[in-house]
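Lab notebook page, bench 4
Experiment: in silico fold of construct C2
Operator: M.H.
Input chain length: 268 residues
Purpose: comparison with the prior construct
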Amino acid sequence: MVTDYNTRALSYETDVLSALAGLANALATTHGDTYFAGIWKEDLQTGLCWYVSGSDYSNSDVQVASNQSSPSWTWIAQRGKEIEFRGWENNHNVANHEGVTFFEHWTNGVFKSEDRFSTIRPKALLLTGRMRKLAVETISKHDYEWKNSLNKTNNDLVAARWVWRVRDIKTNDELGHIAFDFDPVHFETRDVYCLLCIAREKYGEWQLTCLGLVPTDDTLEEFRRIGLIMLRQKDWFGELHVFDPDEETAYIRRPSKDIRFVRTIRLV
């Protein structure tokens, strides 16, 4: 529904959340979940794992209006673009998870009024998770188009619009790919912070889905999202939790004591 809805033009762009309010209200009432700006509190990990796919919608006014009023962590910030969510088979016997396993609170509320379904203003999520810095491979206008096409055929984000390789800053080893939320041809910041959102194992192969972030200032306490990152190296974030693979709903069997890369940040 998000994929179809996000590229539709509305008579009034201020109605972008109001148009979803009725459905969101009904689901919240039925399931008892908490709705925040296009994602659900109880499904935070997967709700944050969206990426821009396909091609841009032609209505640039849609994108400008939405980007000025929405936090970077919600897909609503990308109004006018096609959106996909990372998908996993619903089988916990072969899929373990770790990442942003909890959050502190939603800073000062996210909404302008009592109607949390239809109004929004930029506010921060206070998240705790494993975070490291990596490097985006240098992008030049000369080789951007053909390399972007090549990257899209050999990674876990084949439907993404703008895909680029990411590397370890110290070793320069290729770690995976980033799906940018925007055309990165003019992206000048090479260093990007990678916040682990979900780590899963299937048939012995690891998939680490992360948020690609850049700091908003020099304090390195507040960040904004620029894309979604897929990594394959299980130990890049240190030792992860060990889950019981035989339970219908996987639970932590042995918590990791490795906290080298654990950070608490504000995501705006």
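Observations: Residues 91-96, 101-114 have pLDDT under 50 and may be disordered. The chain has two domains: 2-87, 124-267.
Next step: discuss at group meeting.
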